[in-house]
Amino acid sequence: MKKRSLLFLSVFSLLLPLGRTMGYTFYDTYYGERITALNARSLSLGHTGVLSEPLAIGLNPALSSEVKNLRLATSLRITQASEDRAFPVHDSFEGFLTYNTYAMNTNYYNDFSLAVVKGSTLPYIPTIGLAWYPFSNFRYKYGEEIRGLKDPNKDKLLARNLIKSSGEIDALSFSLSQGVTPWLGVGVSLNILRGTAKKSRETDSLNTPQTDRREVWKNRALKGSNISLGLTYKASGRFRFGLSYGSKPTIKGDHYYQDFLGDSLIADTTLSYKLTYPWEVNFGVEYRPRSILQTRIYLETAFTRWSKLRTSLPDTSLPKLRDVWEIKGGVEHIFFNQIRARFGFLYQPSPFGQGMARSAFTFGTGFKSKGMDIDFGGEVGNREYRQEDLFPESVPPRKDRIKESLIKFIVTISYQT
Question: What integer is the mean pLDDT of 225-254?
Answer without folding.
Answer: 95
